[in-house]
Write a structure and sequence with these properties.
The complex is a heterodimer of chains A (308) and B (292). With 308 residues, chain A is an all-alpha fold. Chain A has a domain of 202 residues: Orthogonal Bundle (ABC transporter involved in vitamin B12 uptake, BtuC), CATH 1.10.3470.10. Helix content of chain A is 78%, strand content 0%. In chain A, α1 packs parallel to α6, α2 runs antiparallel to α9 and α3 runs antiparallel to α8. With 292 residues, chain B is mainly alpha-helical. Chain B has a domain of 184 residues: ABC transporter involved in vitamin B12 uptake, BtuC, CATH 1.10.3470.10. Classes of the chains: A mainly alpha (308), B mainly alpha (292). Chains A and B meet through α2, α4, α5, α9 and α11 of A and α2, α5, α6, α10 and α12 of B.
């Protein structure tokens, strides 16, 4: 344990001994690592919309499960896997058409969610469920959830690991991968399944906002800084965990200076991600300038694809 | 169904559908589905902020959706547009979360902003909707030619002195205005479905832009009218019917394209709709047309 006394200006009392904080830090770290790994491919493939949409689409499954009294998490996961399959079946490769197909699936799912939530609010007359599904709350997670989401996250990462080479090739150059005999559609479907698992896991526990924030933010930061994809994946996971923990700490500490009513964790984590995003832009630009002055050449294209 | 208390709902829905049909045509053409989702969804932060400081909801929605449009365009200079949009919606939603945490009274109204309260539209709410709708239509009419050219063929547009970034920002500002107009009356979910469903279906049936835009408006009108009627009869949320009808229309459109494409191929002449997904490539046939 860190010397709590020397850190006391930074950590408000109780941060290290509070059970909800332990769960929040563990769940946040798992979500951040899985999202960082999957997110690098999301950004390279230009599928941010699908990544964000799944966090909303699952709401329909979650609210349906809520309606019949089943587990919200399993409803969320089941619905997202089906939605990912539908997106893949529509099968459009150009980003424009693909985003439209994603949007249609999202619109239909949100319509279903409206229906289920409406039925749900008639029976229990509360809008708390809507708000909870939308924002999540990292500080109110049951301790047992850690195991379940660790399994889901591991499944998602394992899928990425199995697909790694063909996925990377088909993400960077679809035509080249197809020419080399990579089953690009199968790989794409496998990737969407991994994305659906990762997003369901994070959206249910930490909410739709943080799910997208941790999927896209750290990956975009890492891809600005790292040249090799493998390095970018590690960097994205590390940035995600840092942002998550730093944001949780700020939110915890904020109860003191905000007079009892602390700032929401989602806002604090997103704020940290934005600071890092702009810092990474400055670092990348400085690095490009230095390379230009030392070698006296025009800056070469360093990344295989222009991202981040 | 046509009782006097329903008239405002019919009028609001009709206005929103006409504007959504027109702007939706460009949304689909530019592949801006993500922005069409992000601005209406994120703009609720503006409503929450306005509530917090005691300002008008429409002002809050307007300020935040315009700021969001600027942010997507600004971040998009150094990042891919989908990443820029994702970061923007995340920041807007997080700010909304922050504003909501400062008050304990606002929560039920989120439900209304997400799913709309079209049956509760008052006449005083109708006037801003009409005014902003008129601004949107005029803006699209003024921007029509440069926006069309830069959507279909960015390279040609740039060669003719049309700055693609300016067009991008101009289009996002129009989406922001649509957001401000539509979210208070129909909710963010409904306007999103109306922006992409009817227009997505329309362009499956025709290659000619003015016809596609007209069809898009017709489909949007049919969608909301049927949705209101069925919702009135069944007492279920309108958002569900709009989402379902939009998805149905899109599916019919895709099926029609696939079917007519196969038929014309069999008939001997090469199908003009080689890829039903991208009308933009039809006119220009050069591969660099994607990305904004």
């Amino acid at each position: 344990m860190l010397g709590a006394a020397s850190w006391s200006p930074l950590f408000e009392p109780g941060f290290f001994s509070s059970e909800p904080v332990h769960v929040a830090l563990a769940v946040g770290a798992i979500a951040a690592i899985v999202s960082g790994i999957v997110g690098v491919f999301t950004v390279i493939r230009g599928q941010s919309f699908a990544g964000h949409a799944l966090s909303d689409i699952g709401t329909a499954g979650g609210s349906a499960a809520f309606l019949v009294g089943a587990s919200t998490l399993y409803g969320f996961v089941a619905f997202n896997v089906v939605a990912a399959a539908v997106m893949e079946l529509i099968g459009i490769r150009k980003p424009r058409g693909r985003d439209l197909a994603t949007g249609i699936v999202l619109g239909a799912s949100l319509g279903l969610a409206a229906l289920f939530l409406y039925e749900g609010t008639i029976s229990s007359s509360t809008t708390g469920a809507t708000v909870n599904v939308l924002f999540g709350s990292i500080f109110t997670l049951p301790p047992g959830i850690t195991t379940v989401i660790a399994v889901l996250g591991a499944a998602s990462v394992a899928l990425i690991a199995v697909l790694y080479r063909p996925l990377l090739l088909s993400s960077v150059s679809y035509e080249l991968a197809a020419a080399r005999g990579v089953p690009v559609r199968l790989v794409g479907a496998g990737y969407l399944l991994a994305l659906a698992l990762a997003v369901s896991m994070s959206a249910v526990t930490i909410g739709a906002i943080l799910s997208t924030a941790l999927l896209i933010g750290p990956a975009a930061i890492a891809l600005r800084l790292a040249i090799r994809t493998g390095v970018a994946i590690f960097l994205a996971a590390a940035v995600g965990v840092f942002a998550c923990w730093a944001g949780t700490l700020i939110a915890y500490d904020s109860t003191v200076w905000a007079g009892g009513n602390g700032w929401p964790v989602s806002f604090c984590i997103v704020a940290v991600i934005f600071v890092l995003y702009f810092a990474s832009g400055v670092v990348a630009r400085l690095r490009a300038d230095r390379r230009r002055t030392t070698t006296g050449e025009q800056p070469a294209v360093t990344t295989p694809v222009e991202v981040g | 169904m046509f009782a006097s208390f329903m008239m405002n709902a019919w009028e609001a829905a009709t206005i929103v559908a006409i504007v959504a049909g027109v702007v939706g045509f460009f949304t689909v053409l530019r592949g801006a589905a993500f922005a069409a989702h992000a601005l209406p969804n994120g703009a609720f932060a503006g409503a929450a902020g306005a509530f917090l400081i005691g300002a008008n909801t429409i002002v809050g929605l307007g300020v935040f959706s315009l700021a969001g449009a600027g942010m997507i365009a600004g971040l998009g200079r150094r990042a891919r547009s989908d990443v820029a949009t994702a970061l923007t919606i995340v920041l807007m939603l997080a700010l909304g979360d922050l504003f909501l945490s400062r008050t304990s009274e606002y929560a039920p109204e989120i439900f209304a902003l997400l799913f709309g309260e079209i049956l509760g539209v008052s006449t005083s709410k109708l006037w801003p909707t009409i005014a902003i709708a008129a601004v949107c239509i005029v803006a699209v009419a003024v921007l029509y030619r440069p926006l069309m050219l830069s959507s279909v063929s960015p390279d040609v547009a740039e060669a003719r002195g049309i700055n693609p970034r300016v067009m991008d920002l101009a289009f996002l500002v129009v989406v922001a205005l649509v957001t401000t107009m539509a979210v208070p009356v129909v909710g963010s979910l409904l306007i999103f479905s109306l922006l992409i469903g009817p227009a997505g279906a329309a362009r499956s049936f025709t290659n000619r832009p003015p016809v596609a835009m007209g069809l898009s408006v017709v489909f949007a009108l049919v969608t909301v009218w049927v949705a209101i009627a069925v919702s009135y009869e069944t007492n279920l949320p309108i958002g569900f019917f709009v989402g379902a009808i939009s998805a149905f229309a899109y599916t019919v459109g895709r099926t029609w394209t696939a079917w007519s494409g196969r038929r014309s191929r069999r008939g001997g002449d090469r199908a003009t709709l080689a890829d039903p997904a991208d009308l933009a490539d039809q006119g220009t046939a050069h591969a660099g047309a994607e990305s904004g």
